[in-house]
Task: structure prediction
Amino acid sequence: MKNKFTISIICFFTLISSYIYLSPYITLYNFNNVLQKNKIKEFNKYINFASLRISLQEQIYDIAYKKTYQELEDSDNINIKMMLISPILKKIVKTSINATITPYGLQKLLETGEISSHKQVKREGKNKKSSSDEKNINLYYKNINNFILETNPKETTTSIKALWVRSYLVYWKLESIEISKNN
Result:
């Protein structure tokens, strides 16, 4: 009798531990379904919007600023021009962020490494290649409360790392996205 009780306790803790370990994978599967079906209400529960907005805004602004600076590098009065262009860049980046933090925008960013320039609700046709042909995906724990979804879209030098943070024991939220160039 004691032996059966011990075995059932071990089985119970093994099942619970397995579910806790697999919870980010389950969350990502559900998140992908929400993206595919464009379910806005369900989409909202997977994202920490404030944190994601800040992480993307800083990165995209830095990229845009550096590209603009390189374009104007040979011109006269570059500092004055950059002072005048900077507020315009901030407005463009803000608009891009609003378009990117949507089901379509996040799907486009994670699959292709491209930032959405406008809000788009329509889905592309069914002639699209399968996702395994388009990108390399790595899933791994950074630590016990942080999980990384890393995509490396083919034909680009961009690496996208989506940081998922445990919000409860088995619930995860997208906290930030890191865009980096693979050189």
Q: What stands out?
A: Residues 121-132 have pLDDT under 50 and may be disordered. The helical segments are 2-37, 40-44, 49-72, 78-100, 103-112, 131-134.
